User: What shape does this take?
Amino acid sequence: MSSISYVKLRLVAAGDGSRSGREEAPSSPAVAEDAVPIRRPPAPPPDSLVMVINGETEGSSISGFRSKNPSGWPNLRGRILMFERHGVVGGRMATVTISGETFEAGASILHPKNYHALNYTKYLNLKRREPSSSDSFGIWDGKKFLLKTITVRSKVPIVEKMVSLVNSVHLVARYGFSLLKMQTFVEDTVERFLKYYEDVEGRPVFESVEGMLKWAGLYNLTRRTLEDELIGAKLSPLLMRELVTVITRVNYGQSISISGLAGAVSLAGSGGGLWAVEGGNWQIAAGLINRSDVELHLPEEIESISYFGEYYELNSTKGNIYACEVTVIATPLDELDIHFTPPISVPKRKLQHTHATFVRGILNPVYFGMDDVSKIPDLVGTIEDSDLPFSSISVLRQHSEKDFTYKIFSRKPMTDALLDDIFRVRKETVPINWGAYPHYNAPEVFAPFILDGQHLYYVNAFENAASTMETSAVAAENVARLILSRFFSKASLSSSNLQSSTSSGEELHLDL
Assistant: This one.
């Protein structure tokens, strides 16, 4: 028998999360075996509001905005419910354990101007960690290294600066002033993106992704490929074929045919000042949920959402039924099987699967044409070539001279035979298949933020522009404000700072 929960809420959530505490719902009345049960609860109280939320950045950000700004959510007397289909929160910010040690498996690096992530980290009293600046880097074409930086293991600042200067000269000698043109292209894109942090009194609420992008001057970057944008910026073919390609392959698993905005976001990860949360970026999602008044249901997945005129009915895989007035989907719909009544229309989108393979062992230097493993760069990136079996190999930790933990990114699973060629020793191997981000294809087509014209919202519509922890938070903030401006206006909400803008109005999954 299923159970029905008549939830007195103002905010509820369904997706991916971490704290439990669900009330036991009353059982439905018994029916004869040949009877047809009507799974439609009576309309919920007028003040019910449900958010279907995934427990990674998108969902936790909405709960975080509410908990950090309680005065902005009027008359919010009820509970927030969050449904997470996995057993832990974090989603694509998950970790992996190999040989008893824990490493970031997904989104691992943040940009210095990721202001939502910075504010979350401060709000949650988390510690920042900066990646090593002394790691060496190489570009591999399958036969030889086209480029290798030098590295010197030294804690003497002057030595580190000298090595950095030598590597900079080496890069300029190979790529010339195209490096500056690339930097200008990235900085211009970042400056436009910073408009999303302007004071809310002067920042509209957007009902469409197109309108949100046009307002910041970013929409045209989603209409052309990164390659076209960089040709227009007069970058050299050599820089695009080598360094730019390595960056997009590492960060999005795709070539420079990626759409321009996603490509620019990817390139932003090649600059300085990158950081991560000590202990794992997943703590941001978990911390925001724990700091809010969210009632977390995990593992519990929503399998159908039906709209009955005044409210939504959500059915879960545990046989529970929830009634609510607003539903927010904050997880990609592309590989989920949620049944909607009435049906919704969302542009078909393919996810780019990245295979992350973690190996404890030591590389085979012969595979790379070397006579000693110490000569292999800490990060090996690759050019676009269908014969190359991986996008990158990076050292996560060196335990001794002949014992390392590595992370490999590839578009296809790494077979044991291939791994045995690449590695001299493999003590432990952990493969993960991520449906990590959209497969970008300019010109991009966007799903709406409002899926049914009522109160069914979709945060991940923004992912076709770019997919990072920070862009997810920016989209989540807009949807939170959109709910305030549309739903609470029914109760004569006074909100001079919540004007609406439609499409006519004019991150970072970073690993490198």
About this structure: The radius of gyration is 24 Å. The CA atoms of residues 132 and 331 lie 32 Å apart.
